[in-house]
Amino acid sequence: MGAYVIVDIEILNPVEYEAYKKLTPASIAVYNGKFIVRGGATEVLEGDVKPGRVVVIEFPTTKLAKDWWSSKEYSEAKNIRQHSAKTNMILVEGV
Questions:
Q1: Is the terminal CB of the chain with fewer CB neighbours within 10 Å at N or C?
Q2: Which pLDDT tens digit goes with each residue over 23-82?
């Protein structure tokens, strides 16, 4: 069953965040993940949510998604993101 990492990001330091954007794709590829959405235009259709930069990453399994998130390959990028942005990130199993 597929798994999706859904991220809503408020970028606080755009210069630092550019480094994150450059490092992340290679780390995702190691775990057979791929970007489905990466910062495209958003439009609220219902509710009070005020999304920032929205990213959706697809992985073949929940285990691979969790392994990526806690991996050494992602650790440098994650550290940059955590210092340059406010992030809400969830993992959702697909159907």
A1: C
A2: 999 999 999 999 999 999 999 999 999 999 999 999 999 999 999 999 999 999 999 999
Taking the CA atoms of 28, 30, 32 and 34 in sequence, report the sign of the dihedral they define: positive
Q: Counting Cβ atoms within 10 Å, is residue 39 exposed (0-12), middle (13-18) or buried (19+)?
A: middle
DSSP state of 24: H
For residue 26, which of 76, 79, 73 has the smallest C-alpha distance?
73
Structurally, how many domains does the chain consist of? 1
In a domain, 18, yes or no: yes
Does residue 46 sit within a domain? no
Average pLDDT over residues 15-19: 96
Q: Which domain holds residue 21?
A: 3-41+51-93
Q: Measure the CA–CA gap between 61 and 46, rounded to whole angstroms.
A: 30
